[in-house]
Amino acid sequence: MENIIEIKNVTKSYSDFKLDNINIDIKKGFITGFIGPNGAGKSTTIKLIMNLIQKESGEINIFGMNNTKHDKKIKSRIGFVYDDCCFFDNLTIKSNEKIISSFYKEWNHDLFTSYLKRFELNPNKRIRKLSKGMKTKFAIAIALSHNADLLIMDEPTGGLDPIFRRELLDILYDLIQDENKSIFFSTHITSDLDKIADYITFINKGKIVFSKPTDIINDSYKIVKGNSELLSMINKDHLIGINKNRYGFEALTTHSRELIESYQDSIIVDNANLEDIMVFHIKK
Ligand SMILES: Nc1ncnc2c1ncn2[C@@H]1O[C@H](COP(=O)(O)OP(=O)(O)OP(=O)(O)O)[C@@H](O)[C@H]1O
């Protein structure tokens, strides 16, 4: 399977944080969700991909090209949504379009206008007068209007109401039906990813915990529960982030089959969603 983004042995340090020799392959034709707690390194990774900050070591290839050497060529094919996006605050949406469209060969004015209507954005409104959610909608409309091959979004759903969030997920799902398009986005709303992501990359404290297909993650991670007696017998290496309570314990595991075999009736096994996986890993 072809990779649309390849991050190889990339390191970036700040005074109290290190993105530590990370490796990620993002697959072409799929939606990859990027999850991790606050300060894990998601935005830093995305900024490195977008060549907005400098790495200390390693290499990043996008569309098979080095991202620093082919910066312009690569960016013309990416729809990028992030919080501190650099729009012209004092100008209207319409005037912003005029300027921004000139950067993209494949700008589609009609499509942009249709997104403005769909997102209920008034083209005559100045950017600085938009609410946070409206600004995000505007950024999404821009990102979707130049036939980008790759959408990269840093927490696009953060300031959005649940109705529009669902609409955005539908738009992303429709977009990805074209196998030449790819989407990589970070979010704290893991239930959105349960709905649409094909792959999940999980980062914690500057290290990649895993980058895997969603169905494999769902298959391998389970929640196990039992009483304190069971906990005293179980091999703790098989448990991730043990949570003790007055009834016993619960923990995440990737060894549910062995545990069921060994402890049959005294262990309860439930499915784990992405939030469980994240929370138990962070506890660890
Ligand atoms: N310019 C900077 N100077 C110093 N430290 C920075 C800088 N940018 C980020 N950091 C630090 O790097 C770490 C990772 O930050 P980053 O923004 O990548 O996390 P994140 O996973 O996107 O978090 P969140 O979910 O809260 O947005 C944090 O400890 C942050 O303080």
UniProtKB/TrEMBL annotation:
- Say which domain of life the source belongs to: Bacteria
Keyword Metal-binding among UniProt keywords = no
Q: Which Pfam families match?
A: ABC_tran
Q: Which SMART domains match?
A: AAA
Q: Which PROSITE patterns does this UniProt record tie to the protein?
A: ABC_TRANSPORTER_1, ABC_TRANSPORTER_2
Keywords, comma-separated and alphabetical: ATP-binding, Nucleotide-binding, Transport
User: By its UniProt entry, which Gene3D superfamilies does this protein fall under?
Assistant: P-loop containing nucleotide triphosphate hydrolases (3.40.50.300)
- What GO molecular function annotations does the UniProt record carry, in alphabetical order? ATP binding; ATP hydrolysis activity
Record domain ABC transporter: where? 5-230
Q: Which InterPro entries match?
A: AAA+_ATPase, ABC_transporter-like_ATP-bd, ABC_transporter-like_CS, ABC_Transporter_VariousFunc, P-loop_NTPase
The name under which this protein is listed is ABC transporter ATP-binding protein
Q: Which organism is it from?
A: Vallitalea guaymasensis
